Each structure stands twice: as C-alpha cells, then as structure tokens.
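One example given next:
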Amino acid sequence: MKNSKFIIDKFAKLIEQGIVSSKDLSAEILNIFKSKRDEFVFKMKLTGKDEFDILSKRVENLEIKIKKLEGKKKTKQVKKS
C-alpha cells in the first residue's frame, strides 16, 4: 500500500506541475522507477555507498553506449549484391 501511495503521489505531482508532453511524462516515470530501484538496492545493502555510486555510473555509461550503437544500427544501410 505504501508503494502504491508513493506512485500515486508522484503522478499527482506531475499532473499538478502541468507536464503535457508524453516524452516528459515518460522520462519522469523512468526517473521515478530508477530512483526506487536504486533505493531498493541500497536498502538491501548489497554494496556499500561508494561501490553503489560507481556501479550505477557504469550502468549509466553502458546505457548511453547501447543507445549510440542502436542509433548507428538504424542508420546503416545494407548493400545488396
């Protein structure tokens, strides 16, 4: 119940702020879920705070590289023989 209330409160806050673009809304939702994921991992004490920060930065860098590679893949054209 606590988690659902948190999510509902976040959606209400977004509506109050007047986010109209679907891209803004989806980006904000992803940020909310990422923060909850990070909070969950930190509470589990799987790693220390320093390690967690380093690992989270590595994951962000890998996500950026994946997006770049996906962009390159879409722009490449296949040659027909």
About this structure: The longest helix spans residues 49-75. Helices lie at 2-17, 22-44, 49-75. The chain has three helices and no strands. Residues 26 and 32 are 10 Å apart (CA to CA).
